[in-house]
Predict the structure.
Amino acid sequence: MSELDPRLHFVTATAIIAKKGDDGVVRFLIAKRAATEKAFPNKWTVPGGKLVRSEYEKLPYKTQYPQWYNTMDWLVRKEVREEVNVEIGDKIHYLTDLAFVRPDGYPVVTMSFWCLYKSGNPKPGKDLTEVAWVTAQEAKQYDMIDGIPEEIEEVAELIAGKE
């Protein structure tokens, strides 16, 4: 492999999707990554994916300026639809960001968001094998990517504080 330009990164977004059940319990949608994934194979996570130039270049400009605004919002909605077959609510809230280096040497910047479930019957997309609705406590029992259970717990606390 040739030397990678350290200035170039994959940009990704994840969505912690919350849903309050009829029993009043807040659950979160998690998904298991396929064994073929370069980063974190077979680990449980939350839906998300990469920002791809050839996809966002097809979007219309929403202003007079020659740049795309709200691309992360667009990315989160697109990836959630593709990965787990659900629609999310109108508001997407920023939670945190992180960076890591994939096993193949590519650096990744991930922005983590949280939102409320709107509709759809969750099912795994092509790079996932399973999906589940879990409480923040139950998420800790899954073989998840490091940090994800803590992010889910943080969202659970944010939601509890708003009620």
